[in-house]
Amino acid sequence: MVGFFTLGPYSDDARWAAAVVSAVVVGVTYHLAAEHPFPTAVEDGVCALLYLSGHAENLGIILSQISLSGFSAGSNPAFTVPIRLQMYMSAISCRQGNISQLLHIVAIIAWYPNVDNRLARAQRRASNPGPSKNPIFNPHEPFRRFLFPYCGERGVSDASPAATTDEDLTMALPDDIALCLCEWEMLLQEGKDCADRLERMGKRARTGAVTEREHAFYKSPWPFTLDWKVGTLFKQATDWLVRFTEFRRIE
Question: Looking at the whole model, is its pTM more than 0.90?
Fold first, then answer.
């Protein structure tokens, strides 16, 4: 999903899904703001994983090889859904058994991730190495108030992974995490800071930045326009994903 949880179907990123060969790709159409504010999207993601855990055999899914991915706003649930799922599992494990024994997230591939909603837009704009590439107007900004009706919600763990404790992140997130970034991007520093923290925690965090490109650079409105760097970026991400899953099989 794209558009700060306000617009865009999962099919917008079908190019990435098509690049992931030999895998079952599941797109989650979560409820959008402003009609469905936080934490609806996160809860929808958890429900999707629980649904998959109950229908894995029919869908051909290997529950020990689950990877999560998302673009921009959609990369936020790639982190926050495992955090909320861990909370859910902790609450029910004493009554229904530990779901984590059946459902295991082995990797996250996050594209220009939004991981700290505590940051003001001005802070993000100021951190962009290519300030001229900052959008003049963000049509999604008014929806931010609808997504988070209460400002305090922006700092909770399943809205801002950056606000989560190291202990909770260690328990909830997989060991292998890749962050695909863009050089001219308001979220570049946010992504780098996230990767640095994950590495300090002992996670195998990888980053890749597309040079001289801005946020969502490959989403051209022209159907016959395809930036050549898209293929390079997707190839790197799929190689990471293959290595992540193969490493897990060896373990």
Answer: no
